[in-house]
Design brief:
Largest sheet: none
Structural class: mainly alpha
Oligomer: single chain
Protein backbone atom coordinates (compact mmCIF):
# COMPACT_ATOMS: atom_id res chain seq x y z
CA UNK A 1 0.00 0.00 0.00
CA UNK A 2 1.20 3.49 -0.75
CA UNK A 3 1.02 6.46 1.57
CA UNK A 4 -1.45 9.26 0.96
CA UNK A 5 1.27 11.93 0.80
CA UNK A 6 2.97 12.36 -2.57
CA UNK A 7 6.70 11.77 -2.90
CA UNK A 8 8.79 14.89 -3.53
CA UNK A 9 10.16 15.34 -7.04
CA UNK A 10 13.83 14.42 -7.12
CA UNK A 11 14.59 16.94 -9.87
CA UNK A 12 13.24 19.85 -7.86
CA UNK A 13 15.63 22.22 -6.09
CA UNK A 14 15.14 22.30 -2.35
CA UNK A 15 13.05 25.17 -1.00
CA UNK A 16 14.99 28.16 0.12
CA UNK A 17 18.00 27.34 -2.06
CA UNK A 18 18.70 29.15 -5.25
CA UNK A 19 20.66 27.64 -8.16
CA UNK A 20 23.30 30.34 -7.70
CA UNK A 21 23.82 29.49 -4.03
CA UNK A 22 24.63 25.81 -4.58
CA UNK A 23 28.28 24.83 -4.09
CA UNK A 24 28.71 23.77 -7.73
CA UNK A 25 27.43 27.05 -9.14
CA UNK A 26 30.78 28.32 -10.40
CA UNK A 27 32.29 24.97 -11.30
CA UNK A 28 30.08 23.94 -14.20
CA UNK A 29 30.04 25.33 -17.69
CA UNK A 30 27.14 25.87 -20.03
CA UNK A 31 26.90 22.21 -21.00
CA UNK A 32 27.14 20.94 -17.41
CA UNK A 33 30.83 20.05 -17.63
CA UNK A 34 33.15 20.85 -14.79
CA UNK A 35 35.57 23.71 -15.27
CA UNK A 36 39.15 22.40 -14.79
CA UNK A 37 40.38 25.64 -13.25
CA UNK A 38 37.59 25.61 -10.66
CA UNK A 39 38.24 21.99 -9.73
CA UNK A 40 41.99 22.42 -9.50
CA UNK A 41 43.02 20.19 -12.42
CA UNK A 42 46.36 20.88 -14.09
CA UNK A 43 46.21 23.28 -16.97
CA UNK A 44 47.00 22.01 -20.46
CA UNK A 45 49.17 24.97 -21.45
CA UNK A 46 51.48 24.47 -18.44
CA UNK A 47 52.86 21.21 -19.84
CA UNK A 48 52.26 21.75 -23.56
CA UNK A 49 48.99 19.82 -23.81
CA UNK A 50 50.24 16.69 -22.06
CA UNK A 51 48.97 15.38 -18.75
CA UNK A 52 50.62 12.86 -16.48
CA UNK A 53 52.10 9.97 -18.41
CA UNK A 54 50.66 10.89 -21.81
CA UNK A 55 53.16 11.04 -24.65
CA UNK A 56 53.08 12.18 -28.22
CA UNK A 57 51.86 9.38 -30.47
CA UNK A 58 54.37 10.23 -33.18
CA UNK A 59 57.24 9.53 -30.76
CA UNK A 60 55.96 6.01 -30.01
CA UNK A 61 54.49 4.77 -33.30
CA UNK A 62 56.39 4.60 -36.55
CA UNK A 63 53.79 5.26 -39.26
CA UNK A 64 55.93 3.58 -41.93
CA UNK A 65 55.89 0.19 -40.17
CA UNK A 66 52.69 -1.80 -40.68
CA UNK A 67 52.27 -5.29 -39.27
CA UNK A 68 50.59 -7.53 -41.80
CA UNK A 69 48.99 -10.08 -39.49
CA UNK A 70 46.88 -12.84 -41.07
CA UNK A 71 43.14 -13.12 -40.60
CA UNK A 72 42.64 -16.47 -38.90
CA UNK A 73 38.99 -16.78 -39.90
CA UNK A 74 39.91 -16.58 -43.59
CA UNK A 75 42.59 -19.23 -43.16
CA UNK A 76 40.25 -21.62 -41.33
CA UNK A 77 37.40 -21.13 -43.82
CA UNK A 78 39.72 -21.68 -46.76
CA UNK A 79 41.08 -24.83 -45.14
CA UNK A 80 37.58 -26.14 -44.42
CA UNK A 81 36.32 -25.47 -47.94
CA UNK A 82 39.43 -27.05 -49.46
CA UNK A 83 38.92 -30.08 -47.20
CA UNK A 84 35.29 -30.49 -48.23
CA UNK A 85 36.14 -30.30 -51.92
CA UNK A 86 39.15 -32.60 -51.58
CA UNK A 87 37.21 -35.06 -49.41
CA UNK A 88 34.33 -35.22 -51.88
CA UNK A 89 36.74 -35.78 -54.75
CA UNK A 90 38.63 -38.55 -52.94
CA UNK A 91 35.47 -40.17 -51.58
CA UNK A 92 33.54 -40.18 -54.84
CA UNK A 93 36.54 -41.42 -56.82
CA UNK A 94 36.96 -44.25 -54.30
CA UNK A 95 33.26 -45.15 -54.36
CA UNK A 96 33.16 -45.51 -58.14
CA UNK A 97 36.27 -47.71 -58.17
CA UNK A 98 35.88 -51.50 -58.25
CA UNK A 99 37.43 -51.72 -54.75
CA UNK A 100 34.27 -50.24 -53.24
CA UNK A 101 31.86 -52.74 -54.80
CA UNK A 102 31.24 -54.61 -51.54
CA UNK A 103 30.55 -51.50 -49.39
CA UNK A 104 27.13 -51.72 -47.72
CA UNK A 105 26.68 -48.04 -46.79
CA UNK A 106 28.69 -45.83 -49.14
CA UNK A 107 27.33 -42.62 -47.59
CA UNK A 108 28.99 -43.42 -44.28
CA UNK A 109 32.35 -43.96 -45.94
CA UNK A 110 31.98 -40.77 -47.97
CA UNK A 111 31.06 -38.80 -44.80
CA UNK A 112 34.05 -40.17 -42.89
CA UNK A 113 36.43 -39.33 -45.73
CA UNK A 114 35.01 -35.79 -46.10
CA UNK A 115 35.12 -35.13 -42.33
CA UNK A 116 38.65 -36.51 -42.04
CA UNK A 117 40.06 -34.46 -44.90
CA UNK A 118 38.20 -31.33 -43.72
CA UNK A 119 39.67 -31.69 -40.25
CA UNK A 120 43.16 -32.26 -41.62
CA UNK A 121 43.10 -29.33 -44.06
CA UNK A 122 41.63 -26.99 -41.43
CA UNK A 123 44.44 -27.88 -39.03
CA UNK A 124 47.01 -27.35 -41.78
CA UNK A 125 45.46 -23.96 -42.60
CA UNK A 126 45.60 -22.99 -38.92
CA UNK A 127 49.26 -23.98 -38.76
CA UNK A 128 49.93 -21.86 -41.85
CA UNK A 129 48.16 -18.91 -40.21
CA UNK A 130 50.29 -19.24 -37.09
CA UNK A 131 53.43 -19.47 -39.24
CA UNK A 132 52.40 -16.34 -41.17
CA UNK A 133 51.67 -14.50 -37.90
CA UNK A 134 55.08 -15.35 -36.45
CA UNK A 135 56.72 -14.33 -39.74
CA UNK A 136 54.97 -10.95 -39.62
CA UNK A 137 56.43 -10.30 -36.15
CA UNK A 138 60.00 -10.87 -37.35
CA UNK A 139 59.89 -8.14 -39.98
Amino acid sequence: MSTSTPDPDVNETPTGLDAASTPEAGSTGAAGRTDPEAVGAPRDDANEGLRGDEVEIESVIDPTTVRRAPRYKAFFLTGALAGIVLGLAIGISWLVSPAASGVLKPGVYLSVIVLGTTTLTTLIAGALAIWADKRSLRR
